[in-house]
Amino acid sequence: METVHVYGIPAGSTVSWEWESTTDSSVTGTGLVENESLPNLQIAEITNAGTYDVTITITNKSYETYTLPNPVTVTIQKAKVETPKPKKKIWYTPAMS
Predict the structure, then answer these.
(1) Predicted pLDDT at 97
(2) Taking a C-beta distance cutoff of 8 angstroms, is the pair 67, 17 a contact?
(3) What is the pLDDT of residues 6-28, one digit of tens each?
(4) Euclidean distance between CA atoms 90 and 97, whole angstroms
(5) CB 21: neighbour CB atoms within 10 A?
(6) First to last CA, the chain
(7) How many degrees, rounded to 5, is the angle at CA 54 between CA 65 and CA 68?
(8) Is 97 exposed, middle or buried (0-12, 13-18, 19+ CB in 10 A)?
(9) Burial tier of 16 (Cβ tally within 10 Å: 0-12, 13-18, 19+)
(10) Left if phi > 0, otherwise alpha if psi is -120 to 50, otherwise beta: which for 26?
(11) Rounded Cα–Cα distance for residues 40 and 10 (Å)
């Protein structure tokens, strides 16, 4: 699941990103996507719960390279564990011998 949405990206741009956990600097990731014609992109596939700083850079041959001045902070909440529920109306019939 992509966790960051970026808007207003010029066609022909490359969007790259780096992310790092705010609690464990060894948990990191990077990515890159070519934007052929869509002005909106979903990026930075992060799946584990935690808080992350995502640095985003946009490059395009017709524009100056742009890196967001501050990282985007993303928090992914822990998923809730569903409580198992017993099946209803289960009958036990002893075997006849």
Answers:
(1) 66
(2) no
(3) 888 999 999 999 999 999 999 99
(4) 22
(5) 16
(6) 56
(7) 30
(8) exposed
(9) middle
(10) alpha
(11) 9
d(CA 16, CA 75): 20
pLDDT tens, 54-84?
999 999 999 999 999 999 999 999 988 888 8
Cβ-contact 72, 51 below 8 angstroms? no
| pTM for the structure as a whole | 0.76
Cα separation of 18 and 74, whole Å?
12
Please state, in angstroms and rounded to a whole number, the distance separating the CA atoms of residues 61 and 64. 8
Q: What pLDDT does residue 1 have?
A: 60
Closest CA to 33 of 59, 69, 7, 67: 59
Both tokens of residue 30?
Answer: 């990077």
Length of the chain: 97
Q: Are strands 28-35 and 13-21 parallel, antiparallel or unpaired?
A: antiparallel
